[in-house]
């Protein structure tokens, strides 16, 4: 089959999962004039989008029967499995030719399973996790890493371009999720370094904000240093990305690495520290709350 661009004036986009990031992502699609159907377990989270013109649906199945493109941005792999493969899930109720894009950070094996089951039913599936947090979602500057069939990716690219900037096709089904694991492994150790640096600056009597001016553009520069260190300094631990979800992601990465016979000491230290934070009641804080372990 030749895949044309999925977006046109007749497109109906379903969006499942209106959380910290999903709300902004769905909002960008809506702002471009496309019909957007929304469903999330807590209906109040979708109220703002409904006021802007999105249509609330009562279930995942209702979205599947009406939309020709469905994006999911839910919490955990078990949520993804239920939404796609459950009795009342997307694949059981979708019209032939529907495009599915899972933007949740989930397991590569589940992404492959969904792809294979979708293919058997004449449906198209991509795994397309994102990086950039709440700020990237709000500003439509997300990095989007995509696995699946390349021609399906090309057909969906105009949709990705509404939500992000750095959009890269990584390979067959599961490749987007494996790439996101690389992303999370890199962030895990980096977050420890960022927090240590900011606490060191404070304890040595320096002004942490002035320190940031020097180090954020040099060799130490990183997204976390530029975007999350200022929140640490300000005592703002609101979630751009939840600790509980970061622990989930690191757990997936740890399992995948072990399955490949790979040691990941930096990742192991980070997950241990974040689990300690969660035990202290910080699981719904942003990842920058790692700062609290020192300060």
Automatic annotation (TrEMBL):
InterPro entries reported for this sequence = 6-PGluconate_DH-like_C_sf, 6PGD_dom2, 6PGDH_NADP-bd, HIBADH-like_NADP-bd, HIBADH-related, NAD(P)-bd_dom_sf
Highest rank taxon of the organism:
Bacteria
Q: Which residues form a coiled coil?
A: none
In what residue span(s) does the 6-phosphogluconate dehydrogenase NADP-binding domain sit? 13-171
Any transmembrane segments, and where?
A: none
Keyword Chaperone found: no
Nucleotide-binding as a keyword of this entry, yes or no, is no
* Protein keywords: NAD, Oxidoreductase
One annotated GO molecular function: oxidoreductase activity
E.C. no: 1.1.-.-
All copies of domain 3-hydroxyisobutyrate dehydrogenase-like NAD-binding, residue ranges:
174-293
Q: Which family does it belong to?
A: Belongs to the HIBADH-related family.
Q: Which PANTHER family match?
A: 3-HYDROXYISOBUTYRATE DEHYDROGENASE-LIKE 1, MITOCHONDRIAL-RELATED
Name used for this protein in its record: NAD(P)-dependent oxidoreductase
Which organism is this protein's natural source?
A: Fredinandcohnia salidurans
